[in-house]
Amino acid sequence: MRKKRVLLLSEGFGAGHTQAAYALSSSLRKLSPDVQTKVLELGSFLNPKMAPIIVSAYRKTVISQPRLMGYVYRHQKSFNRLTTLALHRIFYTHTQNIVKQLKPDIIVCTHFIPGAVVSRLKRLDPSLKAPLITVITDYDAHASWISPEVDRYLVSTPEVKAKLRRRSVAAAKIKVTGMPVHPNFWEHPGREEIQKQFSLRNMPTVMVMGGGWGMMNDEVVNEALAGWREKVQLVFCLGQNDKLLRGMKEDPRYSHPNITLLGFTREVDKLMEVSDLLVTKPGGMTCSEGLAKGIPMLFHSPLPGQEEENCRYFTAAGFGEPISSLDVVDRWMERLLGDYGDVRAKRKAHLEEISRFNPLQSAQSIIDMLE
């Protein structure tokens, strides 16, 4: 009997979208051995020479012109016809061939660009019958995610569902499933073995992340954190920012037994498990992973647009706090040192509270559509 095939399409504009695709892939295989999955960053797969240049240009724009990106996010109501046509012709003219070759029973998009392309393909090619699922990987619902050809939207919260409804998406098309976080983040192994693996001490620990692009490069905040290195253990995860990693390794302020400097790692779940506070950019996936681990979060310099919305949601829900000044950092360091037992107890209570959630709900919703 032929296995059911799920094609998961993402893009490399930020690491979170592809992380969500791989999390879904893992969860689908965990739920059903009869499901075959394939994850593709569509632009990178179809145009491996051009895609990294585009992604690099996008990253530089995000870093150097955040207000411009915020303006575009707020004022671009959706992809206009010219943009969609350009994407279709420049990057995705072979998408139809890929779909025909792989013959998926369902197509899942964790980024709005492949979602727009597949929507257009379905509009132009009536023979493409595979249902299209869009997984919104932020705590906001920008209009660029929306298309009449989408059969189901999987969203993180009732608030995101309400935003889609205000944009005239039928309620029957929307399912609140939570964010698709990799199953590893819902597991809670013993701290001792992980501490031994990373040569970490059993003491209050702060994990610092900047996302897959390593955008936690604010010297003022990093230096403020490093100022607590005698009493607090610091783990800096710098992603793919090799330049920042080299610079910090050469900086005597970060040369200390209680400071660990890491580049890209696939073991973020383990590091969150042994950390007591997460200092991070408020990307949708990182925040969701932190939520699953029950770790309190401090949000650093949210980019205008999605990150601002993510920061607003998690702050209002009591899961985190923006770093509005260095006083916030100092207050949390003092809390870790003075009320460590209380911090640990609140984390335990949080984990008990969220244990009622089904971490595989997004994947289960996809399987339900396959049956």
Automatic annotation (TrEMBL):
Glycosyl transferase family 28 C-terminal domain: residues covered: 205-323
GO process terms (BP): glycolipid biosynthetic process
Q: Which Gene3D superfamilies match?
A: Glycogen Phosphorylase B (3.40.50.2000)
One Pfam annotation reads: MGDG_synth
Example GO molecular function term? hexosyltransferase activity
Q: Where is the Diacylglycerol glucosyltransferase N-terminal domain?
A: 17-181
Q: Protein name, please?
A: UDP-N-acetylglucosamine:LPS N-acetylglucosamine transferase
InterPro entries assigned? Diacylglyc_glucosyltr_N, Glyco_trans_28_C, Glycosyltransf_28_UgtP
Q: Which GO terms describe its cellular component?
A: membrane
UniProt lists the family membership as follows: Belongs to the glycosyltransferase 28 family.
Keyword tags? Glycosyltransferase, Transferase
**Organism this protein belongs to:** Paenibacillus borealis
- Subcellular location per the Swiss-Prot or TrEMBL entry: Membrane
